[in-house]
Design a protein that fits this description.
The structure holds 2 protein chains of 2 kinds. By secondary structure, chain A is mainly alpha-helical. Chain A has helices at 6-24, 32-47, 55-63, 68-83, 90-111, 127-142, 146-160, 170-173, 176-187; strands at residues 49-50, 53-54. Chain B has 3 helices and 25 strands. Chain B is globular. The chains are: A mainly alpha, B mainly beta.
Chain lengths: 198, 389
């Protein structure tokens, strides 16, 4: 389980930091070896102790746990940007971004108490939410957005196996850091594009 | 159909089949009815008070207490150099029922312990609340990693030796927004299937009250909102029967301040009446309440002022719909005296199985004050009740 294994939780936090670095730092100007060095350095910085505690304790205390959807996206983003593995199609990425932004708009204001309706509570053992996700996943499969379909399925499977600390399906689908990264990819369109192989 | 296309479809089918087959319907909780408490017959009125938090820390706040299965009282609070400082810990001590003496003050939870157990950096600890759940004690408490109390999350640790030692700290996940802004102040309730209903509140963009439904392992199964907006926090929850409860809430409203909020659920726990302002004043402060001989006969400890916490008073309501009467004043600043702002706050009232009462509250942030009074003393207070409120 991710939540029960400090190593896996730490690696998930390292992925989050690598995703931020990939978007915010001009790493694509570096040769492949340079990028690898940066990736390894960031991973070590996050995993090794900083003062009393591992660096990822601090990252986790700020951002919370990453959703499973985000983790799959971060892996794809890093592979795509640094190793030219085209995993998400451009249109697929656009759809993912729209889905994340729409979900965030529908989830966060209501979860934070704007109205009496609590959208977050709909994530507990809700067959309707699962049904909606199944429809969305099948749509992605029909239009051949395979990685997006796999991403949602991974989140749903992790939810059923309770791999995170939460029993709420929303926490497997979206998190604020993921939203921030999707906004950053929107603001920096070059990130979406496949970098030429070095 | 290509192999990839077929493979992806099979993965989707397997993942969703697993998810749908693992869904369990959330049971509507049924509260365990409050027990009838009986007092010792022919006892003399007793009212005793003492400072019980010792001098380990400069400031203390937010006491809570439970009656252990052996009849002893265990009290918890947090303390440090000041509220929110980095040296805050949760402290506890026990009042022995037989010898009527207090144990030494124990530091039972430090931020280092919580950091190591939750794998998150913790900057400060806050409000504890506890529950006797079978032969275990569940201790919920607040922790903050970043920012002020708006950045709080709830943690749970369980003791199976009456609080002498504590198990690993578990983080409750109760908000999708970095899991921040959920706090506790008042006692949880047990349900007949072993679930726990934990009154909680948010203090970030919204200031509102809600109930967390936890399973027997301490996982959040569901949550139900009592209020919304920026009106009401720190719900004091009392069961009326197996499916109904009432809640008194601290008034944080800018539009309609100064009165204690009240709500009751109508059928299910997700259906609460709109906030109703009671006649009781509330200076944006926590209250505590217990039920007496019936579910509707209540004692409520509160600050009897719409804007200042310069007293600790107790009101009595004989039944549903009846008016409140002021029956006792535990603290009152002397008129004209130079006092620090909001000297008395965060009351916690515990009724023990012998029908007597233990009140704890923050005294000028320097002490946790304990007031013990028995049923005979309560009857005295009732017989000389003050004005209707």
């Amino acid at each position: 389980m991710i939540s029960a294994s400090p190593l896996l939780t730490g690696l998930a936090m390292a992925l989050l930091c690598l995703a931020f670095a990939t978007i915010l730092l001009p790493l694509n100007r570096l040769p492949l070896v340079g990028r690898m060095l940066v990736i390894v350095s960031i991973t070590l910085l996050v995993m090794l102790p900083v003062s009393d505690y591992p660096g990822w304790y601090y990252v986790r205390s700020v951002f919370g746990d990453s959703s499973v959807t985000a983790l799959v996206f971060y892996i794809a983003l890093i592979l795509q940007q640094h190793f030219s593995w085209q995993l998400y199609q451009e249109n697929e990425l656009v759809l993912l971004r729209r889905l994340v932004l729409t979900t965030a708009l529908l989830l966060y204001p209501f979860a934070l108490g704007v109205t009496h309706y609590d959208s977050y509570s709909q994530g507990y053992a809700n067959p309707w939410l699962l049904g909606g996700l199944l429809m969305l996943t099948l749509f992605c499969w029909l239009v051949k957005y395979y990685l997006l379909a796999i991403t949602i399925t991974a989140a749903v499977t992790a939810y059923s196996l309770q791999l995170l600390e939460s029993l709420n399906l929303w926490d497997y689908l979206i998190d604020p850091a993921f939203l921030l990264i999707m906004i950053l990819t929107w603001l920096r369109p070059s990130v979406q594009k496949i970098q030429p192989r070095q | 159909m290509t192999a990839i296309r077929l493979g992806v479809l099979l993965v989707i089918a397997a993942g969703f089949t697993l998810a749908l087959s693992s869904l369990h319907a959330i049971q509507e909780p049924a509260f365990v009815s409050p027990e009838n408490r009986t007092s010792r017959p022919n006892s003399e009125p007793v009212l005793e008070e003492a400072f019980i938090s010792g001098d380990l820390t400069r400031e203390v706040h937010s006491a809570t207490a439970i009656e252990l299965n052996n009849g002893d009282i265990r009290v918890f609070w947090y303390g440090g150099k000041r509220e929110g400082s980095k040296d805050t810990s949760i402290y506890s001590r026990v009042l022995n029922k037989d010898s009527n003496s207090w144990s030494a003050v124990d530091e039972i939870m430090t931020r280092r312990t919580v950091t190591l157990d939750t794998h998150r950096y913790i900057r400060k600890l806050g409000n504890p609340v506890a529950l006797v759940n079978g032969d275990k004690i569940w201790l919920f408490f607040v922790s903050v990693s970043v920012g002020g109390w708006a950045g709080s999350s709830i943690n749970l640790s369980v003791s199976d030796d009456n609080g002498t030692t504590w198990g690993p700290v578990k983080r409750l996940i109760s908000s999708p927004f970095m899991n921040i802004s959920t706090l506790v102040k008042n006692a949880p309730l047990l349900t007949d299937n072993g679930d726990v209903i934990l009154p909680a509140y948010h203090e970030f963009l919204g200031k509102f009250s809600e109930l967390l439904q936890l399973d027997s392992a301490g996982n959040v199964l569901n949550k139900n909102r009592i209020s919304h907006g920026r009106e009401a926090i720190q719900p004091t929850l009392l069961p009326v029967d197996s499916t109904h409860a009432i809640a008194f809430m601290r008034n944080t409203s800018a539009r309609q301040p100064g009165k204690l909020w009240f709500s009751r659920n109508q059928d299910k726990l997700d259906n609460w009446t709109p906030l109703e302002a009671l006649t009781l004043p509330n200076p944006d402060a926590a209250v505590a309440a217990v039920q007496l001989n019936t579910a509707d006969e209540l004692l409520l400890v509160f600050n009897n002022h719409p804007s200042e916490r310069d007293d600790i008073s107790m009101a009595y309501r004989p039944g549903n719909g009846a008016t409140w009467q002021l029956i006792h004043q535990f603290e009152k600043t002397i008129s004209g005296a130079v006092e620090e702002h909001n000297p008395y706050s965060y009351p916690y009232l515990l009724q023990t199985h012998d029908g007597n009462f233990h009140l704890f509250y923050t005294w000028k942030r320097k002490h946790i004050k304990h007031v013990y009074f028995n049923r005979a003393a309560l009857l005295d207070m009732l017989s000389s009740a003050g004005p209707e409120l």
